[in-house]
Amino acid sequence: MTATLGTTPTTKTPDLGPAVELVSKEEGHRQPLAPEFVSAEDFSPLEVAYDFGRVRREDIEAGPKNIWRYKKLLPVPSNVEEIPNTEPGATRLVQADRLAKALGVKKIWVKDDTGNPTHSFKDRVVAVALAAAREFGFEVLACPSTGNLANAVAAAAARAGWRSVVLIPKTLERAKILTTAVYDGDLIAVDGNYDDVNRLATQLAAEQESWAFVNVNVRPYYSEGSKTLAFEVAEQLGWRLPPQIVVPIASGSQLTKVDKGFREFGQLGLVEETPYKVFGAQATGCSPVSAAFRAGHDVVQPVKPDTIARSLAIGNPADGPYVLDVVNRTGGAIEDVSDEEVVEGIRLLARTEGVFTETAGGVTVATAKKLLETGKLDPDAEIVLLITGDGLKTLDAIEDKVGPKATVSASADAVREALGI
């Protein structure tokens, strides 16, 4: 793997707001902002470093009702909100009292990201990636995807007037295929799993100089979009950090960036730097990070995914080791749950709070339940659950589990008989 995949089509200095350089995660090597994702010095992932200056609560509160209210904390142009984009974010934080009662805990909040433009948190990261890609002079927005990212990239490109190229496993849920294809970009189904698709994307990113693969050559910028979940949770809680948060794990990037967002808010004095614990959730059929945590390892061994939670089915998660670092540092834990538990998690959230989540959210809810049963989550401390995608995307997971209670003739008597009244 090389540090640079392709070259930028322009030499202009990018306007990426407070972002000043890239830094390697392992040894802290620094280099100029560029569409690169691996350090040439230590071959570790690159992430964005900033000079934030002064950021005040009132400045954020005066901003737009989307993620651009946090633009002073993101690698995006100073006028980002003026350029056509999908304007994601500002999703609701639900006080889930009925779910809390069902699980026997004091208070649970559900961060419901199904309200984003393409109904998943991926709209956040793609919006940031597109803004950075435009500054670097790219012309095509591309990605390998397990589904939600495919939707977000195709929609964001359509809104911006860009071409999109999206690579997906051919076994992806039908709903996610349709909700990507409708935007009329170039959707390519690949005979293989996500890890195969990701390898193909890395090869193409090296060959196609004008293509911005959001989770490959502009990944350092893309991943920063997940911080906005942390920012919104803290702001919606009244400018404070939650004691406990449960985050689903696919590549692992989201979990690490939620932690980064909390830390940045604390360092900037926007919230009090109170302790918090980060918990990770995986499906048992693709649980390499959970297995590493349980074994006390700091290395994640790749696995072949086999789970209904396809949006989390990344057998070789790029940020797995960094997830372990965050969870161990904050005193959290990582668990995994069976497909049966995933479905029950979906149904539990739906019947208690009226929130219909996809399988990834089912993983989060079911994992929280398991963490409570094993004493790893404190039932007396507040808990935030990240629900990252809409259940309409994964109808196949529940189609054999739910349906009409009865089928009757068109008469009131028949309805009363069916209901036993």
TrEMBL record:
It is an enzyme of class 4 (lyase). One of its GO terms (biological process) is threonine biosynthetic process. InterPro entries: Ser/Thr_Dehydratase, Thr_synthase-like, TrpB-like_PALP, TrpB-like_PALP_sf. Keywords: Lyase, Pyridoxal phosphate. The modification N6-(pyridoxal phosphate)lysine is found at K122. The keyword Lyase applies. Its EC number is 4.2.3.1. Residues 88-389 form the Tryptophan synthase beta chain-like PALP domain. The keyword Metal-binding does not apply. GO terms for molecular function: L-serine ammonia-lyase activity; threonine deaminase activity; threonine synthase activity. Its cofactor is pyridoxal 5'-phosphate. Belongs to the threonine synthase family. This is Threonine synthase. The lineage of its organism: Bacteria, Bacillati, Actinomycetota, Actinomycetes, Pseudonocardiales.
